[in-house]
Structures are given as structure tokens and as C-alpha cells.
Design goal:
With 314 residues, this protein is mainly alpha-helical. 65% of the residues lie in helices and 7% in strands. β1 and β2 form a beta hairpin. α2 packs parallel to α6, α4 crosses α6 and α11 runs antiparallel to α12.
Length: 314
């Protein structure tokens, strides 16, 4: 057989590179893109009894929709009406609550993660930094559900915090800390803390220490050097930490279910109810797509506002 000609695609480096990434690309298409495409398509179709009717409509997002059921003669009979994702005030309030909780969790997590990452980077001896990073990963040794249940036990009426406060005679009766937004914020912040510490630590490690020495030589104290040198140079890590925490927490399902309870459902809990118990996959898909759009827009806006910190050196 003759050697492939240099100009042909199948004998080029592009073809070789495509062959290397094709298994990963196929995997991503089958397990990520295909379900996402199904959700987007289902969000503009019509709800039927135990099925999705292939009839295009946008009322799942705005306006009033109707669910249908096949009659005895095969015709579609309207069974009930419902408001779209952006027209139903209850769904809108749950969406705003999810966004609010996610922002609170992100602020709390990054605010707690930055001092820890700073301490490891600047105050721990290089030979011991690996041990500290290893200790940070210990929470991942247990199941996410077990960690959530652990916080239920800590924050419960007979939990560690209430027992300690009562033992110190600081309170007369246990505080009601479970099944609240505060409990969700605490639990999620603990769960996502390692994800925020690691990118901030990497950004701090990349800072040239001579920059800090130069700032102090020019008359700056340690605090102003931190504000004018360390913090701006570590912003790529902070931005990464914010996105890593914010994006998944708005769609978290387990923590609101176990810690928030029925009083404070998040958007993922509403989607689960509509998809399974409510048998309204088009509306559930429309809410899911709406949540993805909101998260995407906020993330892009956040990146745009911090674009000057993300640019490399000129």
C-alpha cells in the first residue's frame, strides 16, 4: 500500500489528533450533550399523560399551558392547566431562593477558603504543604450524603452545638437550626470548601514573592501589600473558586432535601417533583433550562467583570 499523500486529511496531524480525542468526544456527546438536548427539546413540547406530545409550544416558559390525555376515540382531551416557568409566582420565588442561597454559599465558602489557602501558601513550610493539602481532602473520603446527615446531627435539637450551649448555660432550650436556609448554607459551604481552597492555593503559589518584598520596600505595610499585590494576583484562583462553588450549588438536590426540608425547597427539588410525581416533564425541563440560562449569564457577567485579573502578563 502506498503512503498517504501529505495533503490528505486522513494522513495529517489533524486526523491523528481527532482520533485521539474521539473516544472522549463520543463519551461527552452520549452522556452530556444528548441528555441536555433532550431537556431543551422537551421544554418546548406539550405535556401528556405519561408521555410527551410532540407539539411545539413556548408556554412552558411564558403564559398558560395545558396538559392533555388521549380520549377513548384517540383525540386529546385537556386535563389541567398550569403556568409556565416564568409566569408562575411560586416557581419564580423558588428560583430566586435558589439563586440567593447559592450566592450566600459562594460568598461564605470563598471567604472561609481564602484564609486557609493563604495560610498554607505563606505560613506552612514547603515540606509540610502536601500534608495540609492531603488533610483538606479527608472529607471526600466519606459519602456526600453522610456529610449532609452529619450536619443534621450537629445542628439538631440534641446535636453538638445545642448540647454545648446548654452545657455552658448560654441558652435555656435548644435552638431550632435545622430545616432552614442557614443550615443549607452551612452544609453546602462545608461540602464545597475543598473545591474553593485548592484553586486559590494554586493561584497564591504562583505569586512571585519578590513582588511582596518590593511592595514592603516601597513603604507599604503587610495589609496594604495584600490588598494591592497579593489579592489582585490571586484573583484568577478566586474567580475559579467562585464558579466552582456557585454553578453546582444552585442545582444541588440532596442538601435542600435533607437539611432544608419541605419548607425551603430549591429548584432541583421542584424539578424532581415535576418530572416524577407531577408527570410534567415539559415544565420541569423548562425550569431546568431556565436555571441553566441564569447560571450561564451570571457566570459570564462575573467573568466579564473580572476580565482584567484573568489576562496574562502583557
Amino acid at each position: 500500500m502506498s503512503e498517504p499523500k501529505p495533503g490528505r486529511f486522513w494522513g495529517s496531524e489533524a486526523a491523528a489528533g481527532l482520533g485521539l480525542i474521539s473516544p472522549t468526544a463520543i463519551y461527552a456527546i452520549l452522556l452530556l450533550a444528548a441528555p441536555l438536548a433532550f431537556v431543551i427539546i422537551a421544554s418546548v413540547l406539550t405535556d401528556g399523560y405519561l408521555q410527551i406530545i410532540p407539539k411545539f409550544q413556548l408556554c412552558n416558559y411564558f403564559g398558560e399551558c395545558a396538559s392533555y390525555k388521549a380520549g377513548a376515540d384517540g383525540t386529546l382531551v385537556e386535563t389541567q392547566k398550569y403556568l409556565g416557568a416564568w409566569s408562575d409566582p411560586v416557581l419564580f420565588s423558588v428560583m430566586m431562593r435558589s439563586l440567593f442561597v447559592s450566592i450566600l454559599v459562594t460568598v461564605a465558602t470563598v471567604a472561609l477558603a481564602y484564609p486557609m489557602a493563604y495560610f498554607i501558601s505563606f505560613n506552612v513550610a514547603p515540606a509540610r504543604k502536601g500534608i495540609w493539602l492531603f488533610l483538606i481532602t479527608i472529607p471526600f473520603w466519606t459519602s456526600y450524603v453522610i456529610r449532609v446527615f452529619m450536619w443534621n446531627a450537629i445542628l439538631g435539637f440534641s446535636g453538638v452545638i445545642n448540647s454545648l450551649l446548654i452545657g455552658l448555660n448560654l441558652i435555656d432550650k435548644p435552638l431550632d437550626m435545622t430545616f432552614s436556609i442557614q443550615a443549607m448554607v452551612i452544609t453546602l459551604a462545608h461540602s464545597f470548601a475543598p473545591f474553593a481552597i485548592l484553586p486559590i492555593y494554586v493561584a497564591l503559589e504562583k505569586i512571585d514573592r519578590s513582588f511582596l518584598e518590593a511592595g514592603q520596600d516601597l513603604g507599604e505595610n503587610r495589609f496594604t501589600t495584600f490588598l494591592r499585590v497579593t489579592l489582585p494576583l490571586s484573583m484568577p484562583g478566586v474567580v475559579a473558586a467562585v464558579l466552582i462553588v456557585f454553578i453546582p450549588t444552585i442545582g444541588d438536590y440532596v442538601t435542600p432535601k435533607l437539611v432544608g426540608g419541605a419548607k425551603f425547597p430549591m429548584i432541583a427539588n421542584v424539578i424532581e417533583i415535576l418530572m416524577l410525581k407531577g408527570d410534567n416533564k415539559p415544565l420541569g425541563s423548562a425550569i431546568a433550562v431556565s436555571a441553566m440560562v441564569i447560571v450561564g449569564l451570571i457566570s459570564v457577567l462575573f467573568l466579564f467583570l473580572n476580565r482584567r485579573y484573568l489576562r496574562g502578563p502583557k
